[in-house]
Amino acid sequence: MIAMNDADHRQFLIGNYAPPSLEIVRGEGSKLWDANGEEYLDFTSGIAVSTLGHGNPRWVEALTRQAGKLAHCSNLFSIPEQVRLAKRLVSRIGPGRMLFCNSGAEANEGLIKLARLAGSNAGGPLEGKTRIVVAENGFHGRTMGALSATES
Length: 152
Description:
Elements: H1 6-12, E1 24-28, E2 31-34, E3 39-41, H2 57-69, H3 80-93, H4 104-121, H5 144-148
Antiparallel strand pairs: 1-2, 2-3
């Protein structure tokens, strides 16, 4: 294993934040351990769209089983598990269709496009009439559309 240091981090990674002060090497549930064996509580149980904790045996087993069959496939094709999940979600939350995304930023981009489409379908030009209502001081992703909805 190559030990991380600040020089390596700065040379090989583009930082979104200040250089990290901890080198996290493993996690279990909501706990994390650094390279020195020190234990920490992970109050986010992951990050962003992965807030299921670390190393949950049921999640690991389900992920391993699915990865053994099909890890990822383009939505140019019909994927039975995806159709079943969409049907299950629609049955619980009401009429509509699902758009599965790989990140919150991509989901926000999709919603921005759908809002523009709805405005366009309502008739008339959109110039000067496009506004996005967002959570104040919220983080919405790092894509161009999502960044326009993020305060700073």
